[in-house]
Each structure stands twice: as structure tokens, then as C-alpha cells.
Amino acid sequence: MIERYLWKAVLGTAFLLIFWGLPLTATAQVAISPVRVDLSDDHTKDVVRISSQAESTMSYQVEIVSWSQTEERREIYEPTEDVLVVPPLFTLEPGEEQIVRVGMLADADPSVERSYRMFITELAAPQEEKQEVTGVNMRLRLGVPVFVAARALPTASLEHIDSKQMENQLFMQMQNSGNTHVRISEVQFHAPGAEEPQIESAAIYILAGQSGYVPVVLPDSKREGRITLVTDTLGTVEYELSAAN
Known about the structure:
The chain is built from two helices and 17 strands. By secondary structure, it is mainly beta. Helix content is 10%, strand content 49%. The two termini are 20 Å apart. β11 and β12 form a beta hairpin. The protein folds into two domains: 147 residues, Immunoglobulin-like (Sandwich), CATH 2.60.40.10; 83 residues, Immunoglobulins (Immunoglobulin-like), CATH 2.60.40.10.
């Protein structure tokens, strides 16, 4: 059972890496700015600019859903009426820009940050829908994180509570007991005797009051070393991996 959930974690992380690895130009099709929306009682609305990089006319759907995580690091998305996005549908000509407005419909929580995702999905052209499908037809779908800050002062923490190893990959389960998210931007593994650490870029969120898995690539399936997580809010967090783990 745990293996199935961990592979879902890998896929979820891969999705985030694809998106966050390109901070402004998300793909060859569109450019997005900003790539994260932060709202609060003092900042109840914002805009996201979506610019076409395509050579043809493209249509998109925009929706926002609540975002949570389980202990197995699964991404849970559910309908919400807390935040509104306008317009929900639009078409872009080559080089054209669309402004999407994001606004709060509910007050901020007194104690805990709320998390959402704004999904921007490319829609198939009518002629493409009528064509016979002869292969895999990949459609662009991007998820922009949207956070509504709690009224209380922000706090965050990262505590290692468990680890699972599958071949040359370690999955560290990290608990965030704070009231705001932690974003991990880099994972380093320093093997004993190695002059330089192995560095992997990351874009992993551990949401407020929740836990998630952080994948760590272990060269040659090594079971000892120092793992360093580079975060946006807590600086660096280190963990010593021993053979006993």
C-alpha cells in the first residue's frame, strides 16, 4: 500500500518541478506571472497575467480548488467557493495576454493559512475533438498555488517523522506543525567522504498542519550521509541518515 502512495508522491513532485522549474514561461505555449498568489484580509484580490507563446489560437479553462495533503503525501483537490477566478474561460491569439482576477469570497481563517490551486487547462480545438484519436494527446494543465494567510502571526516547522526507502530513493515524511506552508526548493545529499553534495532542485510544499513526503535520490543506494533541505521560510534543515534508518 505504501509503495502505491509513494509513487503518487513522485508523480506529484514531478508535476511541481515541471511547473516551478520555469518561473515565468511555464511552457512553450504560455507565460504566467506571478507563479504564486498570496492573499490575506489586507490583500483580498490579485491578478495573474497569462500570455500566449503559441503560434495558433488557443482556448483555456481556469478553475480554483481547495488543496490539502494526507499523511501519504497525496494531493487532495476539492471544489471551493472561498476564492473566485474571473474569467473561467478565455481564448488567446498568438502574442495576446489575458488578465485573470483572483479574489477572496470568504474571510481568512483566524489561525491557519488556507491553501488552493488555480488550474489553467488548455482546451482542445473543436476540429481536434472530432478527429480520431490515434495516440496520446497531451493537454497543458498548470497549477498555480494560491494561499490565504491566517490572521495570526505566521509560524512554520519541519519535523522528520518517518522514512521509507525504495531502491535508490529515500522518501522522508516531514510534518509541518505551523500555521503556514513550507516550500522546499532544493534537496542535497552529502555522502561520507564526498567533497561536494549531490544537489537536486525541488518544488515541494508541506502545507500548514499537514505532512508530506520529500524524495531524496541516494547515489549507489547509499544508506548513510547528511540530507539538507533548503526552504524558503526556514532556511536549511539538516537530517543525518544512518544505516540504522
